[in-house]
Structure formats: structure tokens, C-alpha cells
Amino acid sequence: MKVETIDHGFSGLAHVIASYLVPTEVGPVLIEAGPASSYANLVAAIRALGYAPEDVRHLFVTHIHLDHAGGAWRFAESGATIYVHPRGAPHLADPTKLLASAARIYGEQMENLWGEVRPIAAERIKVLDDGQDVHLGRTRVRAISTPGHASHHHVYVIDGLLFAGDIAGIRIGRGPVLPPTPPPDIDLEAWRASLQRVRELAPDALYLTHFGRADDVRDHLDRLESKLDAWASWTLGALRAGKDDEKLVADFVRYWQEELRACGLDEERIREYELADPPWMNLQGLVRYWRKHHPEAFNLSST
Ligand SMILES: [Zn+2]
User: Is the pLDDT of residue 5 over 70?
Assistant: First the structure.
């Protein structure tokens, strides 16, 4: 099976956000819409592959975060069916809460970063349950519920290839594998269980939304899990030390930068990682995880 990797050129940088196009007997199938802000780049890439955007009748989003599904409404308006996790579907139909939650994270950068997001008509949305198959000609797409990064996360398996969304982390080029841990629903126990499920599926390759194909599946997942554990312990340690939130963020960003530099990354690659997986956001998500799921783990009056 041929998979086309489309680079959104998000914020003018390569290797930050991908969509994947799989040619089938019922036309090109798209995995991940990417954000609305880079829709024009996506369309240009679809045309360069010999298709029109309205040829896309089937779009699978791994989850509803704006870097994955923000541009889905454009395809719905040209008649595509948008496939999504049951917990994500209501937010595609009415993105009000999703946008309010994103605005709390991104503030004034919202519109600039993500572009316009419109509701998707209910008849264009198709909810997929865990393990459910979609048959498109001879191509079978299987949805696997994989919470942890978000409660509304699916991966999709086509012909032994696993389209991983954010559950298998972020790796740009030959850089390190990092976990994206934004607020509000990081759940480390669920995430570890999802990684175990991905291991058991034993896919031939992972297709990461951030960014590209990874063939060393086992090693990749192990490296992600150990980084997830390391960041979670760092955060717990800092919370136990009673650091205030501002100091926590500043210290984590420094720790994060030192880790990336220690991997030998140049400043441009670090900038790509920063856009795909902002460290200040990761810290906020991990703090929220500890406070929400394990208030007993440290002596803080929970906020
Ligand atoms: Zn993402």
C-alpha cells in the first residue's frame, strides 16, 4: 500500500504537522485534516498528487485537537465523511467548548495558529467504536481506541500500518521521541495501556502526525514511554518541592531545552519540536494530571 505524506508547512516550518493520503478504489482517503490555518497547503499538496480536494470522501481524524482536526470542516463542506472517536464527535458538531479550552492555552495566538473552525453537520460525522472496521473498496481501516494523550483518541490501522496521531509521541527526523502532554486530559495509566495495545498490534510501521514514518516500532514506543515516565517524575518532584507555577514552567522549559541540545539538535530542529509539542504546554498538562489523578502523591492543597 502506498502512503503519501503531506507536510502542512505549519507556521512556515517543515516537519511539524502531517496528513496522510492513502489511494483506494473509492478515491483518496485522508488521515488527519491538520489545522484550518494550513488547509491551503494541504489542498495544494492534494492537487500535486493528482486529486481535487472534493475527491476526498473519507477523512479519519485521530482526535479533535486543532492540529489534527481543525480543518476537517472544510472537507465536510465538500461532502466528505469525517470519522472520529465517540467522545470527539460532539466537539466536531459544536466546537464551542473545544475552542474555549484551546483559547485558555493559546490566548491571542488562537486565530493566527489555528485559523477558523466551523461546526460540522451531524450527517457528515461518523462515529467509530473501538475495533470497528470501515471498508473502502478493498481497503480496511480499523479504529482502535487509544486514550492517554486525549480521552477521545483513536489510532487507525490499514494493512499493518498504524496511523498513530499523538499516542506514539513526536519524533522529527532522527531526533528524540517526546510525549505531547497538553492539558486537559493527560492520563498516564491510560496512555501506558494504549502503548501496550499498540505493541500487541505489532504494526509494521508507525505514521506519526508529528512527524512521518517510524519503522523501529518497539524501540520507538519504549523510548516514548521512558520519556513519559521521566517527565512525569520531574513534574511530581517539582510539585513536591513546592515551586510556584511560573517557576515550574521556566524550570521545565530549561530542562526540556537542555535535553534536546544534549541530543545534538540544532536550533531549527528545536524550533520544530517546540511548535509541534510546546514544552510549557506539556508541563501544564502533567501538573494537571498529578493534581487531578493523584492529589495524594504530594502535599499541595489542590487547585
Ligand atoms: Zn498533535
Answer: yes
First to last CA, the chain: 49
Ion ligand 1: residues, Cβ under 5 Å:
67, 166
Give me ligand 1 centre to Cα 132, in Å. Answer: 23
Ligand 1 midpoint to CA 166 (Å): 5
CA of 242 to the centre of ligand 1 (A): 30
Q: How far is the CA of 299 from the centre of ligand 1 (A)?
A: 32
Compute, in angstroms, the gap from residue 65 CA to the centroid of ligand 1.
7
How do beta strands 205-208 and 161-165 pair? parallel
Choose the CATH number for 4-224 among 1.10.1060.10, 1.10.645.10, 3.60.15.10, 3.80.10.10: 3.60.15.10
Amino acid at residue number 242:
G
Length of the chain: 303
Please state the domain extents for the chain: 4-224, 234-297
Rounded Cα distance between 202 and 150, Å, is: 22
Asked whether the beta carbons of 33 and 72 are under 8 A apart, the reply is: yes
Gap between the Cα atoms of 214 and 203, Å rounded: 10
Using the mean position of ligand 1's atoms as its centre, give its distance from the Cα of residue 247 in Å. Answer: 26
Predicted model pTM: 0.95
Q: How far is the CA of 175 from the centre of ligand 1 (A)?
A: 17
Could you read off the pLDDT of 191-218 as tens digits, one per residue? 999 999 999 999 999 999 999 999 999 9
